[in-house]
Amino acid sequence: MSHISIIGTGNMARTIGTRAVAGGNTVEIMGRDRAKAADLAEALGGGTTTGDWGTAPAGDIVVVALLYDGVVPAVTQYGDALAGKVVVDISNPFNATFDGLAHREETSIAQEIAKAAPADAQVVKAFNTVFRHVLEKGRPDIFLAGDDPRAKASVGAFVESLGLRPLDVGGLKMAHWLEGAGVITVGLANHGVGNLDFALSVRELPF
Amino acid sequence: MSHISIIGTGNMARTIGTRAVAGGNTVEIMGRDRAKAADLAEALGGGTTTGDWGTAPAGDIVVVALLYDGVVPAVTQYGDALAGKVVVDISNPFNATFDGLAHREETSIAQEIAKAAPADAQVVKAFNTVFRHVLEKGRPDIFLAGDDPRAKASVGAFVESLGLRPLDVGGLKMAHWLEGAGVITVGLANHGVGNLDFALSVRELPF
């Protein structure tokens, strides 16, 4: 069982929160709008609590479930409140044409978070290759990138508590390529593959 | 049935050639070393022919199966001999640490080929996310990127003749992210996933 805080009250916060509660984890919801956070906490049930935006999260794992351009500002605003936490970045910084990333250089939101977060916070990229409703309905593979093995292991255990398979792709630098895998996923959807009901996965032989 | 020319005499040339012959396609092998090309053609059987390096390929689809740093020089050397051809780039330009690409900017070998090839040649990225022995033993998904719908359709038909599923990810610019998917594949292998006997795939709900 993991202690999870989710920053955000949108669709991905709801979906991950729902699976987290079902998986027996404790969940806290933190939203800029405290009433929205309380509503989501109540909807999730299972003893889900509400935390104040910008204060120290109750969870050991903090899932930042915001639109990509709000992620680094939020982490910056939380600042030392994230000391010692495992921060999970699920964002997809698509460009306007959905065939590239919003940042031109070879970086990622996850790497930018790592620069903004306290030195003893650990960032893990996860969940970004999965459409929300596939995460609701199915058991998609969850790709992980991060520099700290213990942080990655704790996110991996959380992913397993959701009934999903964590797949380690390497260090945090690989978050750039996971963001690219998000671009591929949208590219497939835009070119006639799978009617959005699919996920990038790892298949092992024989197949 | 497709008419295929393969530039190269290495492992990927052999594997794609073997599947191409089995799929009922006509195959031509072109190698700098003509004797090696003739040996591979003989090994492939099924009427496989040998062509002279740098001359007009017999096939409509030309698979460049060289190490990545030899691809653009070879296409440049072929020059107008590739006029009207569909050129398939299967390369993986890994950096020295296998966690990024050899080119720093947001480009791809496929896009660089398009600059070097005749204006009426069409470039399609394909096959680069698949380990060779998985292509030998299994039926991995084949991701395609390219700007010309007809060229992509003809490569798609060739992929289907191999018993594999072509998946369109979008325009040639997406080749950059497919090269990134190659980096993810190696990252997974280097972090304990799948013992090399796996491939990135698309799974469709329910799962």
Automatic annotation (TrEMBL), chains A, B:
Residues annotated as domain Pyrroline-5-carboxylate reductase catalytic N-terminal: 4-93
Keyword Chaperone part of the UniProt annotation: no
Single GO MF descriptor: oxidoreductase activity
Gene3D superfamilies: NAD(P)-binding Rossmann-like Domain
Keywords: Oxidoreductase
PANTHER family: DUDULIN-RELATED (PTHR14239), REDUCTASE (PTHR14239:SF10)
Record-given protein name: NADP oxidoreductase
Organism: Streptomyces griseoviridis
